[in-house]
């Protein structure tokens, strides 16, 4: 039996859907305020909050209007201030999430802001959406400090999610508490296993790779 295979029809040019290219002039001429996002990460005690405060103070010196936010989960040194491990302070909004910020501050005050600092960013689930809107739509400079990794060296919260949005990313290091070499990791001294556990030098120490691995082995052996 003879089978007739249908020959595919060649599409006429007019039938091929047009790909619409964005017009570069239109993009270039659209007037949008230009925001920025700067991200500071690293282990605990690396100087993330210190770096954040330095940048915020320098923006303030340049006459820019600033607001600082931290997670209200961080109750270590003060409720309504960002505080470094060596005691430098800056007043802030301590919030459960970032979406409540505009409402708390008021629309008019929000519009006047040039720079928003965010500390303990690992605790804000809505970090990505907030930063995207603040920089892309509202023209704010957002400076974010937070832990990139938790005590098990896993992604911590949404901090690494905003790297694709960022103008700059700075990874700081601390000093290994056991040998003084550069420390990239945070070691939890206690046996608690929950990801979020607020604490300072009583609970955590910065360590180099070698001492992170040794410490984890010792913990496993003892457990
Ligand atoms: N192992 C440590 N234990 C306690 N404090 C430390 C330790 N290493 C450094 N520090 C102090 O912490 C300061 C940095 O604090 P901070 O900016 O709050 O760090 P981060 O925000 O990265 O945790 C350093 O300047 C130093 O004074
Ligand atoms: C590693 C790790 C840390 N945390 C908590 C401990 C502190 O309260 C903050 C980090 O503060 P810092 O300003 O960076 O010193 O995060 C946690 O909850 N879980 C962890 O694994």
Automatic annotation (TrEMBL):
Give, as in the UniProt entry, the pathway in which the protein acts: Pyrimidine metabolism; Purine metabolism
Q: Which residues form the active site?
A: 120 (proton acceptor)
GO biological-process terms attached to the record: DNA biosynthetic process; response to stress; thymidine metabolic process
| Family matches, as Pfam families | TK
User: What's in the keyword line of the UniProt record?
Assistant: ATP-binding, DNA synthesis, Kinase, Metal-binding, Nucleotide-binding, Transferase, Zinc
- The residues that the entry says bind substrate are 204
* InterPro entries, per database record: P-loop_NTPase (IPR027417), Thymidine_kinase (IPR001267), Thymidine_kinase_CS (IPR020633)
Q: Which SUPFAM superfamilies match?
A: Glucocorticoid receptor-like (DNA-binding domain), P-loop containing nucleoside triphosphate hydrolases
Family statement drawn from the similarity comment of this UniProt entry: Belongs to the thymidine kinase family.
Q: What protein name does the entry list?
A: Thymidine kinase
């Amino acid at each position: 039996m003879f089978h007739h295979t249908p020959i595919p029809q060649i599409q006429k040019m007019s039938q091929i859907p047009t790909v619409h290219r964005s017009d570069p002039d239109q993009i270039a001429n659209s007037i949008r305020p230009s925001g920025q996002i700067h991200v500071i990460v690293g282990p605990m005690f690396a100087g993330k909050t210190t770096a954040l405060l330095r940048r915020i103070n320098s923006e303030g010196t340049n006459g820019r209007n600033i607001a600082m936010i931290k997670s209200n989960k961080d109750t270590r040194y003060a409720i309504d201030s960002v505080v470094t491990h060596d005691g430098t302070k800056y007043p802030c909004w301590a919030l459960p999430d970032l979406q409540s910020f505009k409402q708390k501050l008021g629309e008019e005050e929000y519009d006047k802001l040039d720079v928003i600092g965010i500390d303990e960013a690992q605790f804000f689930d809505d970090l990505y959406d907030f930063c995207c809107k603040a920089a892309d739509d509202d023209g704010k400079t957002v400076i974010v400090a937070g832990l990139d990794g938790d005590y098990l060296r896993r992604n911590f919260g949404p901090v690494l999610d905003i790297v694709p949005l960022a103008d700059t990313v700075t990874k700081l290091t601390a000093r290994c508490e056991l040998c003084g070499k550069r420390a990239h990791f945070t070691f939890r001294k206690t046996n608690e296993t929950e990801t979020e556990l607020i604490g300072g030098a009583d609970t955590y120490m910065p360590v180099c790779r070698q001492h992170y691995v040794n410490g984890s082995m010792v913990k496993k052996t003892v457990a």
